[in-house]
Design brief:
Elements (H helix, E strand, L loop, with lengths): L1 H20 L5 E2 L3 E2 L6 E4 L14 E7 L12 E7 L5 E8 L11 E2 L6 E8 L2 E8 L5 E4 L5 E2 L5 E4 L2 H7 L23 E6 L5 E6 L16 E9 L5 E9 L2 H8 L6 E8 L6 E2 L10 E3 L5 E7 L6 E7 L7 E2 L10 E4 L5 E5 L7 E8 L5 E8 L16 E2 L5 E6 L6 E8 L1
Antiparallel strand pairs: 1-29, 2-29, 3-4, 4-5, 5-6, 7-8, 8-9, 9-10, 11-12, 12-13, 13-14, 15-16, 16-17, 17-18, 19-20, 20-21, 21-22, 23-24, 24-25, 25-26, 27-28, 28-29
Length: about 425
């Protein structure tokens, strides 16, 4: 009996010890708005991208005057900051006509100078990056628009936003700021561009043509291939991106005025132009994604095993055969997935359900336990395809807050949630 008691005690100690080694879930506070009407507002960049200034005092936002349609080249958005230390004071710092409701103006903070930031705009008839010191008003222009910037603020990736406007209108820019190259199915001199934001140096990192053998085949006579959705690893050594091919391109345009069917592959490439890799086998596609802090691990929503079920998967570059399917049957949906700054949790929020509510969850990677971060209602006027309001959450770099866009209180505004670890 004594041996049995000691054995049971040992098992209990092991179970308690295992439980204590699991990272505890943080306390996530209730949302509170930091912007208000009469304008609608959204965070000034895409999901997962830092919105806080290096000192944590300011959050970048866009102010817009309409919803229910695509932004056109005549629609100007206000580029602004919210001062979290001065009663959420709204500080306009500029304007832009290169923006959309999904990725805003791709605003990035550049930490190598106090007050320095970058965002896309159309200047002199061209899509460009504006590098601005909002405190001094000084600015200079980089000749291509940014799609992603590394955490140091030095390196950026650019792509063809005019081509994207035709293939994914809700992610491209209107107007003639770039040549969409619609008569060139596989451009050899366009694709992913790597830019040094300090010097303005640029080079073609990967042409669309150079990725042809790894992309879905085009069998129609009027297809088109393009790149989109980029993110640079924290150490600036790699880029994740989506590569897509369109069948019957002109027929789709004639039918609806935009592309609505495409095939996708997820890819990575090193920023020295080597080691172009497919992340998954045929049919897995890819939708949303985020790098972990180790610059090796990615979380991606993909078609698990090439079937019709979206899933959250985690893998390391170079170890793509060891894909981990997160919480099967529970996390099998397409969400905006982002690692917490400590790399131990994944926040993900998806699209509205039949009742018009968006769900948001926080998953612990170690044991795939999960907590709900709430449900957010979407009024019908914010469900239009090109002006919809996704939550598009992102962490403050120190993990102390989550920021997101929402319409659950009747208008599109920017919200924060305080996080205690």
């Amino acid at each position: 009996m004594k041996k049995l008691q000691l054995f049971c005690l040992g098992i209990a100690v092991i179970l308690v010890s295992c439980k204590e080694t699991l990272p505890p879930f943080p306390e996530v506070g209730e949302p509170y708005a930091i912007t208000q009407g009469p304008q609608d507002h959204l965070l000034a960049n895409y999901f997962g991208i830092n919105a806080w200034s290096p000192d944590g005092r300011y959050v970048c936002v866009l102010g817009v005057d309409f919803t229910g349609r695509l932004a056109e080249q005549t629609d100007t958005a206000t580029v602004a900051l919210v001062d979290l230390e001065d009663n959420n004071k709204y500080i306009p710092i500029g304007s832009t006509t290169c923006w959309n409701f999904q990725e805003a103006a791709m605003f990035h903070w550049l930490p190598w100078e106090d007050g320095l930031c970058a965002f896309n705009d159309c200047r002199y008839g061209k899509f460009v990056t504006v590098i601005m010191n909002w405190k001094t008003g000084a600015e200079r222009i980089v000749s291509r628009p940014i799609s992603a910037v590394d955490p140091s603020g030095e390196w950026a990736v650019s792509l063809n936003y005019a081509r994207l406007r035709v293939c994914r209108p809700d992610y491209g820019y209107a107007g003639g700021g770039q040549d969409p190259r619609l008569d060139d199915v596989w451009p050899e001199d366009d694709g992913l561009w790597l830019i040094n934001l300090k010097t303005g140096e640029e080079r073609l990192l990967l042409s669309v043509a150079a990725a042809k053998d790894l992309m879905p085949e085009i069998t129609s006579e009027d297809g088109l291939a393009y790149f989109c959705h980029t993110i640079i690893s924290p150490d600036a050594s790699k880029v994740f991106f989506l590569a897509r091919t369109v069948q019957d391109f002109k027929a789709q345009l004639a039918e609806r005025g935009y592309v609505y069917k495409w095939d996708t592959v997820s890819m990575t490439i090193r920023t020295d132009g080597t080691d172009l890799r497919r992340c998954f086998q045929d049919g897995w596609k890819g939708s949303h994604f985020n790098w972990n802090g180790d610059s090796e691990t990615l979380v991606v929503t993909a078609r698990w095993n090439g079937n019709q079920t979206w899933a959250h998967v985690v893998f390391k570059v170079g170890e793509e055969d060891a894909v981990r399917h997160l919480a099967p049957g529970i996390m099998d949906w397409d969400g905006h997935c982002i690692f917490s700054p400590n790399g131990k949790f994944i926040s993900s929020e998806g699209y509205w359900n039949k009742d018009g509510n968006r769900s948001w969850v926080l998953l612990r990677l170690e044991d795939e336990a999960m907590i709900s971060l709430g449900s957010f209602f979407v009024p019908d006027e914010y469900k239009e395809q090109y002006s919809r309001c996704d939550l598009h959450a992102r962490w403050r770099p120190d993990g102390s807050q989550l920021g997101f866009n929402s319409v659950h209180e009747g208008s599109r505004q920017v919200y924060l949630r305080d996080v205690k670890w």
